[in-house]
Amino acid sequence: MNTQEINLKKMSPDLLSDFAEKLAENLKKNKNTNKQTQIRKFYDELSMWNNKVQFSKDKQSEYEKNAIFIKMMKAKVAYAAARKSGGNYLVSEDFKNFFDELITQIEDCETLKNAKLFMEAVMGYCKYFEEKNKNR
User: Is pLDDT of 101 > 90?
Assistant: First the structure.
């Protein structure tokens, strides 16, 4: 999956629909990694940082104050990609690459908001493909 197509500065409806769906389908191909609980863990943290920034009086200042913690999420994903549980990695290399690209593109309060929206779309599609793959 080519994560270069992600552009948080110029969000397009296709990014939240078609691309998010393709990405989620790719992430859910292997039933043993990228469990919904692991993906949600990273979404929840991203959402928490977004809320902290978006609900502050000075959004950009709040973003700048917390940017280091937002960027730290890349290290947390790397840890999960290297860690095994029950013989399987918690998240795949594809998820790590996607999330790295997402976090790399966060540069201000607006791109943070767009990252959260995109991740939310991916989460929805991941749930769909997880359920669809259960029934196979």
Answer: yes
Whether 133 contacts 27, CB under 8 Å: no
The pTM of this model reads: 0.92
Task: Write the secondary structure of the chain as one string of H (helix), E (strand) and C (coil).
Answer: CCHHHCCCCCCCHHHHHHHHHHHHHHHCCCCCCCCHHHHHHHHHHHHHHHHHHHCCCCHHHHHHHHHHHHHCHHHHHHHHHHCEECCEECCCHHHHHHHHHHHHCCCCHHHHHHHHHHHHHHHHHHHHHHHHHHCC
Maximum Cα–Cα distance across the chain: 49
The strand pairing partners of 89, in sequence order, are 84
pLDDT digits (tens, 9 = 90+) for 24-62: 999 998 888 899 999 999 999 999 999 999 999 999 999
> Is the sign of the CA dihedral 86, 89, 95, 100 positive or negative?
positive
Separation between Cα atoms, residue 15 and residue 45, nearest integer Å: 21
What separation in angstroms does the CA of 51 have from each of 44, 120, 132? 10, 14, 31
Alpha-carbon gap, residue 66 to 18, rounded angstroms: 31
